[in-house]
Amino acid sequence: MLIAAGVVLLLLIAAAVLVLSRGLAALSAASAQTDRLVLAEGLLAGAPMQPMLVRPDHRMEMPPRVADLFGLVQPPTAFDGLSAAGGGLDPRDAEHLLADVIAVQRSGKPFVRQVRPRGAARTLTLRGARAPAVAGSADVVIWVHDASEAQAEAERLAVEQTQVREAFNALTGLIEAAPLPMWYRGPDLRVSMVNTAYVQAVEGADAADVVARGVELIEGSGQGGPLAGATAARETGRPEVRVLPATIGGARRSMQLYDVPLPGGGVAGFAIDVEELEEARAREQRFANAQRAMLDRLSAGVAQFGSDRALLFCNQPFRRMFAMRGEWLADRPEFDRVLERMREANRLPEVRDFPGWKAERRDWFTRTDAATEETWHLPGGVHIRVLAQLLPDGGLLLIFEDRTEEVQLASARDTLLRVRTATFDNLFEALGVFAADGRLQLWNHRFRALWDFEEDFLNSHPRVDAVADKIAPKLRTPNRATLVSELVRSATADRQQRNGRVALADGRHFAFAAVPLPDGNALFTMLDISDSRRAEQALRDRAAALEAANQVKTAFVANMSYELRTPLTSISGFAEMLQAGYAGALPDQAEQYVTAILDSVSRLGMLIDEVLDLTQGERDMPLRREVMELADVARTAAAGMEGAAADRGIDFAVTIDASAGQLSADPRRIREAVEHLLRHAINAAAPGGRVLLHVDGDDEHARIIVSDDGEGIDEQAARHAFDRFAQPTTTRGVRALDLGLPLAKQFVEAHGGSISLVSEVGMGTLVKAELPR
């Protein structure tokens, strides 16, 4: 029994152990299940989508979180609770959702709907489907997801997509409308997209045709080909720029190519026609070269510095002025080094603080004003004008003008002005200078003292009208003062010089003149001519007296000549009667005496006629003008003198040209003038000598020339050869009063002609008379 009891006890213990073991296992499984349930509930609570269950009878099981998403205070238990007052869905949205639920219950087809709770800004996405089998086949589970952020992101992306599409379309239109060729190369560097300008440049049919044929804008291959830039841009990751020639529209153009690498491995490119730019650069270079050549010819020194303050250019005068060697300038020295070199050559002003002075000049590169000007006073009295001009590119242009000579000339000019002022004030004449506007600018002491002007009046630079009003009371005739204004205006405006005389009220006389000056002003001068006026009047009175005496003398000579003719006629008559034998036959000696008496009577009669002619003068001489042949008159006069020439053994030659022509003159007076000239020549010629009469002329004048080879006369006698009643001349030891030349001159000038005499001692004499036609 004990054994049986023990076995039973053992069995009971074993059963208990087994039950305990199973219980512990079940407890462990329940705990694990509880943990999984807690984890599931936690995951479900944190899930972005929350479920709610709709029963076949439209009852609902909704977690509080879902009720909060719908804007409800308490989770509803029936479907109608979704559209409760103060929250939930709009009744229409609730109806549509209920219809979706019924459709799922009937057909099992899931649905998706977006709703917006009343009074909320959120958007809810509802996804409905049949619930799992464990929940019942007619139940519908609706997963609720707050899609507000996703919806906003979707709307934002839609807006961005619209903007990107619009920008892409605009960029595409811009590229297509661009006037310069543009293209895109794919990763294989083949052209895959071109614009219209590219198609026109390569003369293609359209973009597709150009891309299909792979037409390149630039010909060639290798380093100078179209792919070189694209390859370099893709390898370096930086844009490549090149200038290559291209044939566009049948013309060779210079194109600037840009290859830009893109992130996708492709390369975009565009080309700019820089042919005009290259030509402009060439023109600019030619202009710069011409400008530099011109600057080399200037007398002023010119130096140009770049924006880096390095010397870019300097002309030859600059090099000579500052003793700059070409090899040193070839290294493009900086501005500071150039100044230091100038200082070494003693071509800078002497300053105490040279670094500070140099820093001030360095500021020329950064000054806001366009130009700076200053003067450098160098050792040795050299003056240099320096002009610093800031250039648009940040550089600096310096111009150095040597004004030493100008300063010296200015100093000399100041000295001359002081000398002129001193001379001006000490002149005996009264001087005043009037400007072009008629104002008095300068005057001397004599001018002020003459008119007794006040200093304040003169210092106000009065106009000429005011000056004329001031001097009017001091003139003998006050209205003559307006003449001063007229003269000054004539000299300034008309640039004409005028003069005259004026009498002052105190009896003095002044000669005045207005002279135009080169600077547009007028010089008004007045000279006291009172003494010369009195002397002139005395001379005039004396001349009148002499003229009256001359007239009395002329009248006396004329009367005496007429009185002499009466006894001379009687002597001539009785001598002719004796020669004719009225008193009987005369012996040979008496015949000779009578012949001598008749010759003397003839000569005396001729002298009386000549004296009478001289007393008449060329103005009072009566002329009987007629058209005459000068050749005939000259031959008649020569024929009358042939006997006198033959008596003395003179070789008498006559040459008359056909150009002698005709004259409108008095034939008798012209014949007498020729006879007087021939008689003078025959008397002056030595026995056996030669006398020449030559007559010719031109369209306006006739010319009579008489010459002899006699002893001639000196210069003093030649000057008085045509004077009336001159000192008698001596010819071959015989003293005689020769009236032939004065009479010939009087006859010629009475016809408006002229007569001249040329003589040299020992060579003879030549007389030339010219008569107008």
From TrEMBL:
Recorded coiled-coil stretches: none
Does the UniProt entry include the keyword Lipid biosynthesis? no
CDD domains linked to this entry: HATPase (cd00075), HisKA (cd00082)
Q: What class of enzyme is it?
A: transferase
**What residues does the Histidine kinase domain cover?**
559-773
The catalytic activity of this protein is classed by the Enzyme Commission as 2.7.13.3
Keyword match Kinase = yes
Name the PANTHER family for this protein. Answer: HISTIDINE KINASE 1 (PTHR43711:SF1), TWO-COMPONENT HISTIDINE KINASE (PTHR43711)
Superkingdom classification of source: Bacteria
Q: Which UniProt keywords apply?
A: Kinase, Phosphoprotein, Transferase, Two-component regulatory system
What protein does this entry describe? histidine kinase
Q: What is the lineage of its organism?
A: Bacteria, Pseudomonadati, Pseudomonadota, Alphaproteobacteria, Sphingomonadales
In its UniProt entry, the species of origin is given as: Sphingomonas dokdonensis
Reactions accelerated catalytically: ATP + protein L-histidine = ADP + protein N-phospho-L-histidine
